[in-house]
Design goal:
Blueprint (H helix, E strand, L loop, with lengths): L1 H5 L4 H5 L4 H17 L4 H59 L5 H6 L12 H16 L5 H27 L5 H24 L29 E7 L3 E8 L5 E6 L5 E6 L11 E3 L4 E5 L10 E6 L6 E7 L2
Helix pairs in contact: 3-4, 3-8, 4-7, 4-8, 6-7
Length: 322
Amino acid sequence: MKRIFHYLINCFLIAVKRNHKKMAKQSTRNLEALKAYSSNPEIEALYVKTEPLHANYHSLLASWITSKSYRAGSVQSFNDYLKTVRAKLEDWELQIRLKFKKNTPTYKTIFPNGRSFILEGTQEEIISKFTSFREVVENLSDLNVIHVEVKATGLELEAVYGKKNEKTQSKSFSTTELEQAYDLMGKALYFNMLQLACIFIDDTSKVEKFFDMSLLRTSDKDDDTPTETSLLVNIPINSSSESGFFITVIGKYLIMNRSAHSLQFYGAATATELPKTAPREILPGEEIEVSGAELGAPANKYLIFINPSTTTAAQVEILEVE
């Protein structure tokens, strides 16, 4: 009875486990095979029904991928420019301290929470804090040597931020339609498999020509297809946290900082091991792809994050991409 029950399950929706790469591959394989055998009127009818579903799904999938790349690129361009601003702030502080010693009232007016605080937080908060910094500097005649550069940097930072907003708004994308198209595609593949089994009732092995059988399974034991695995990790205030994500030497991982401030990460042999080399920094909203080898695998199996903020908890998302 259990074996029969497996045939009543839509294996295309179950086997691919919400993996668009696999659904795209399976749907294209099926459509191409249906077209190749369309001289058979019954198979041609399946092709005619499947083609618009395939076209719609792949169109939405392409839009989603484009939307992701625009968002990632726009955030990255802002974060890239922050690196330039961070270096300039270091130079400006030297100039400022020539006129106003550290911890004097005027210095504290310029840097009320320290120099690095200006570039912490959300992009909106950074813009606001830098604007306040710029206004204070421009009102101090003793700092006229850096007036022009500070103003120009502030305007450039606002311009980069503005371009980011334009890109994000123009390329915003709802995944609802894509998920609906995904389900329809999976149902169409299942329907096609049942219809093809009827067409080739005398030799059902021919059905395999229409699908990538390596992506299908009938039980958990048969599933040797790797799947994309993601994990959200919460990191308490001013602490380090082992992610619970084990790394391998052949693995590749996309680390996404979902926090409003910078974090650090490193690979370690144990869950409590301190970093042996300088941890790598990941800026707010930044996405970094890193290999297991770069993290020190196979000797290092643990991925550890450091949240330096004394006021705000942090969150990162980890996606195993290979």
